[in-house]
Amino acid sequence: MPSTPPPSQKRDRPSVPACPKCKQVFVRRVLPKKGWEHLLWHLYLYPFRCQLCTHRFFALRLGQRYRIELDDMREYERLRVTLPVTFTGGPVKGTGVTVDITMKGCWIDCPQRVMVSKGMTIALKIQDSGKGLPIEIESGMVRWALGRGIGVEFLNVKPNHLDRLRALIKTAWEQSQRDDVEVLPSNVTPIKQKVRAQART
Ligand SMILES: [Zn+2]
């Protein structure tokens, strides 16, 4: 059985520039489009996508060569969350748990198979942990319907709910960064080292 690398190894990737629009550093390198963007790639000018304000931009990363990987196909990094969600679309009503999320969509696991089909439009209410009212996605399109799982692309979100969605994603991203740091040193804590040093003197 092939084992997956621990998160600390997965995160070992080159640094990315801050978004010129919102100044955040939750930015993802994305694939160049065919044509002149490929030419720029060879000149170290790479396309990036801000994961919070969704702005796409180019940044010069002189001397940094990126390998194109399968994972690059995604424009948005899916963040793992556990958020209750309800959804409605015509006669269909359902509940489930949002298990990953981006500014553009989410994946929902349902307790049982739900009668939604690809291409159907649904409205979602995602319960942000610790917050009173849910975040409302006015309309989203079902892109995947696999057994008890539904992949939804967000189509329409009111500005105030979009702001709340952005805040939720920023928090989830910061949490994922902290989780990565926590798995690094484990065997000797700095306090133990200090005690040992004191014992020798
Ligand atoms: Zn941005």
List keywords for this structure.
alpha+beta, 2 domains, binds zinc ion, globular, Thrombin, subunit H, 6-stranded antiparallel beta barrel, disordered C terminus
**Which geometry do the CA atoms define?**
globular
Q: Termini distance?
A: 50 Å
Number of helices: 4
Bound small molecules, which ones? zinc ion
Helix content, binned percent: 10-25%
Q: Which fold name is given in CATH as the topology of the largest domain? A: Thrombin, subunit H
Main sheet attributes: strand count, strand direction, barrel closure: 6 strands, antiparallel, barrel
The percent range for strand residues is 25-35%
- Going by CATH, the architecture of the largest domain would be Beta Barrel
Based on secondary structure, the structural category is alpha+beta
Mean pLDDT: 85
* Radius of gyration based on Cα positions: 21 Å
Q: CATH homologous superfamily name of the largest domain?
A: predicted glycosyltransferase like domains
Write up this protein.
The structure is a single chain. With 201 residues, this protein is of the alpha+beta class. It has two domains: 27-73, no CATH class; 79-178, predicted glycosyltransferase like domains (Thrombin, subunit H, Beta Barrel). It has helices at residues 7-10, 36-42, 159-182, 190-200, and strands at 27-29, 45-50, 56-60, 79-89, 92-101, 105-109, 121-126, 135-146, 149-156. The strands form two sheets. It has a six-stranded antiparallel β-barrel with strand order 4-5-6-9-8-7. It has a three-stranded antiparallel beta sheet with strand order 1-2-3. A hairpin with a 2-residue loop joins β4 (79-89) and β5. The termini are far apart. Bound molecules: zinc ion. Zinc ion binds next to loops.
